[in-house]
Amino acid sequence: MGDVNRATTAAARAPKQDRSRATRQRLLEAAVACLAEHGWAGSTVAVVAERAGVSRGAAQHHFPTREDLFTAAVEHVAEERSTALRELFPQGAAGDRRAVVEEIVTLFTGPVFRAALALWVAASNEEQLRGRVTELEARVGRETHRTAVQLLDADESRPGVRETVQGLLDMARGLGLANLLSDDTARRARVVAQWAALIDAALGAPEDA
Amino acid sequence: MGDVNRATTAAARAPKQDRSRATRQRLLEAAVACLAEHGWAGSTVAVVAERAGVSRGAAQHHFPTREDLFTAAVEHVAEERSTALRELFPQGAAGDRRAVVEEIVTLFTGPVFRAALALWVAASNEEQLRGRVTELEARVGRETHRTAVQLLDADESRPGVRETVQGLLDMARGLGLANLLSDDTARRARVVAQWAALIDAALGAPEDA
Q1: Which residues does the annotated region (Disordered) include (chains A, B) (predicted)?
Q2: A72-96 tens-digit pLDDT
Q3: Fewest Cβ atoms closer than 10 Å to its Cβ: which of A78, A150, B81, B178?
Q4: B172–A177: do the CB atoms touch at under 8 Å?
């Protein structure tokens, strides 16, 4: 009997957990879209809850404060993007560093970057946000750097290689900014082609070549 | 008599124009400081007028709308910075491109960049600002590019040179972002040293060498 009860409870619990996870996911995605479209000033828990089709109470159950919701949202999508990037090159990308550079730059030119930027700029003016966003940014930045090094087959023990990759990520961020107000696709493609070649030369032969 | 009257009027007008110019200047500088510190949401004509020690009426005489004031302010300081950059290298900088790269990056890491960024991000969410800031950004961007090409002694008729310089300016913007929430000075110095070397090699011998 005890076993049967436990099994029933577990079965009832599983769909509830699924629903809770799905609600959380919808809130995170709505939060990112909201930040990207309306900026920090226009992004509140209430607006996001409505957009996600979730009651305000349920939203606050998952994310007690506005800061909780939006930092969790940016971290969540940044992780998703990073995973997607690695999955694009399951064998690494030896021999096609240009494709890797293109994909890295793409990470910084969509709505996720706009959302992160809105949070970043708000954090620069709001004490309550600053500490959390700084920490989040450092974590996401380290992860992106690690992924870039791996996909580019870059040997960081060689002098200058680490800084070459860092500069690439800085450039990608700058290209994201340049795409904020107008469509910068054509110019960006030319810059990326040129810098992919410079970076390929600077990194030298892939480690496993 | 007519001549005397004209002379008197001109004499009275000159100091008045000077005062008006000084007021305008104070407003522009206060507007940039305000944007950098408080972001777009915290930046109004009234706040800037008080900071500049100017009546609100006088501020509105110079800048009828909030958009007028802040776009004029960012343009004004961007021009000042660009002039200052050229004056640092009155003979061009043949032979010391690293110094030029360092100074260009410095343009993007101070309060002026923070102010421009706040305006930029606000414009991405506010229709009223978007057109004007896009136009301003294009104008300032072209001017910065022209200055960079000249100071780096870059020959844009060579394939890839234009894109190399553009990528440098994108990287500089990205470094500005990286410096927004925490002091990135030490890391930035290493990235700039490495990228200055890459750029120097990519640009080839200076035109006049």
Answers
A1: 1-22
A2: 999 998 888 888 888 888 877 666 8
A3: A150
A4: no
